[in-house]
Structure formats: C-alpha cells, structure tokens
Write a structure and sequence with these properties.
four-stranded antiparallel sheet; eight-stranded mixed sheet; alpha/beta; 11 helices; 21% strand; 30% helix
C-alpha cells in the first residue's frame, strides 16, 4: 500500500539572530534527518516535550515552512515534481487544525463564512455558501444557527468543532491536528476525540496528531513517533511502545504519566537536567546529557535510526530491553 504522505531525510533550518555584533549562528537546525510515513486510514501521533520540533515538522509536511533538505511525497509523488497544479491538489487533499481554535478563526467572519472559506480559496463552491456551512456544522454536531455566530461567542469545545468543520470542508484525505484537545475540560476532550474518531471512519481520513498528551495519544493513535531536539528517536505501533519503550527518552515520558491508582507505582525513570539549547546541540547522542544509561560512546557518536522488529525503529546505541 502506498503511504498517503511520506517524508525522507527532512531538514528545516531557521536563521538565528546574531546579536548587535553580528555574532552567533547563521543556520539554526530545527529538524534534522526526519523520515516517516503515514498509511491511508492511519492515525500517527507526534509526541515530545515543548520545543522538540513537532509543530515545525507538521507545518513542513504541508509546505508551510521551507525545507533545507529531504523529500516529501504525497500519494507516491514527490511534491517538487507535481508542479503548481499538483501542489494545489495537495493543499486541497490536506488540512491543518491549529492549536488555538478561537485564534485560528477570523474575528471578523461569522462561523458560517469562516468554515466555508476553503471553498472560496480553491474555487470549489458549487452551491450556496449557507447550505454548505449548515452541512459542515451538522457534520461536527453544531446547530445550523451557528452560521451567524462569531468566534468570541463560542465555548472552547464549540470553537474546536468549528475548526474541525473548516478542516473538513474540502473533504481532505489527511488532517494534521496540532494539540486538538489543548485547553479543554476533560469531558470536552473526550467529546472531541470521539468526534475525530467517528469522522475518521465515516470519511476515510488519516490523521497526524501533534501533542505532548501521552494519555490522549495512547487512546487514539495507531502508531507514534517520539521527537527530541528535532529528531525522531523512536517510532512504532502505539501499543508496543507503551508496553516496552526501547529509547530511554520514551520510557521516561511514559513513566512520568500519572497513574490513577494509588496502589500502583511505576519505576522511576525521571529525566535529569534541562532540555539543551538547539543553539548548542550536544555532541554524539543529543539525549546523553539527560540519559540515565549514557555511556562513553553516547557522548561522542551520534546514533542512527535503526529498524527493529514489528515495524519499530529507535535512535539509540543501547536500546532498552
């Protein structure tokens, strides 16, 4: 089966400020050698601490930030080879749900206009705009009269549903959701996740979900990719990674999740130290400065992403058993 989206050796650089003397780094590597693939109908979770590069990767996959290297293929075709027409097709077949559901909607537009704006941008509106808006609102469980409301009149959960409606306006094949449950009450989080799961089945969607919420991603994803300092350090089926993480960083993240049972205790694998600055990346394995299991080789030699059994891969010299 051809992956719906595939990235190979992806790199993204930003220009770093050099200060008043012009000193500093001209090139700031945000993403380094990132490769991943998502199959049709699959949900992939991108997980990591703040600053790990998750959102930058999501935007790079949609062409929203320039790449310094690597290849992106959509439905088997390299983006560079499809030309202007093909790139417009890519934009119609992919969509992004932004982290701030209210801030991502224009305060000047009523909800009906906001969620049907993709039709106008792509010249795809074949019926009345109000009719299209009402159909999208019904799809995400909002009343028809919301077409006349404005973003500031919506609750967080309602605004998120409106964001889902806008993302699905053109019936994309792939939706990238950046922290889709951030800032919502637990009960509302469950409603949004159930909505996304239902729509995935009904519309044959694929999802890439960007989050630091391990409990949420464990519930909804088929596979997860763990990111640290702009690299994927572990990737594989969700159930297998939660059952036996192979990278120390992954194991530490999972161990830090609270267990709602006072009779159960997890083995402590707390991450020590602070996240290194990307202005001064550690030599060798970039996680060695915080790793409980680091050895001399880790401090001098960078590991590669190595395939394991069951479709898993890990970037570690000494994977956990």
């Amino acid at each position: 089966m051809t992956p719906i989206l595939e990235a190979e050796g992806l790199a993204v650089n930003f220009r770093a400020p050099g200060g008043f003397l012009g000193l500093g780094h001209d090139r700031l590597a945000i993403l380094e050698d990132v490769s991943l693939a998502i199959e049709p109908g699959e949900t992939l979770g991108l997980v990591g601490e703040s600053g790990s590069g998750k959102t930058t990767l999501a935007r790079a996959l949609l062409g929203l930030v320039p790449r310094a290297g690597g290849t992106i293929r959509f439905e088997g075709k390299a983006i560079e080879a499809v030309g202007t027409h093909g790139f417009r097709h890519l934009r119609r077949k992919t969509a992004m749900m932004f982290q701030d559901p209210v801030g991502s909607l224009s305060p000047r537009l009523a909800i009906g206009s906001a969620i049907t704006e993709p039709f106008v941008i792509h010249g795809a509106l074949m019926r009345s705009r109000r009719e299209a808006a009402e159909e999208l609102l019904a799809l995400v469980g909002l009343p028809k009269d919301f077409v006349n409301r404005y973003p500031h009149e919506l609750s967080g959960g309602q605004a998120r549903r409106a964001g889902v409606a806008r993302a699905l306006a053109l019936r994309p094949a792939l939706v990238i959701a950046d922290e889709p449950t951030a800032g919502l009450d637990v009960s509302i989080q469950g409603e949004i996740l159930n909505l996304m799961t239902r729509l995935k089945a009904e519309l044959a969607l694929s999802y890439i979900i960007v989050t630091h919420n391990l409990a949420m991603i464990r519930h909804v994803s088929d596979r997860i990719a763990i990111m640290y300092l702009g690299r994927i350090v572990e990737e594989g089926p969700t159930a297998e990674i939660f059952a036996a993480a192979r990278h120390p960083y992954t194991a530490s993240l999972i161990a830090s999740e609270p267990i709602p049972d006072p009779r159960r205790r997890r083995q402590s694998l707390a991450i020590t130290g602070e996240v290194p600055s990307i202005l001064n990346r550690p030599k060798g394995c970039e996680f060695h400065t915080r790793c409980l299991f680091a050895q001399e080789r880790c401090r001098s030699q960078a590991p590669t992403l190595t395939p394991l059994a069951s479709g898993r891969s890990v970037r570690c010299h000494y994977p956990l058993n």
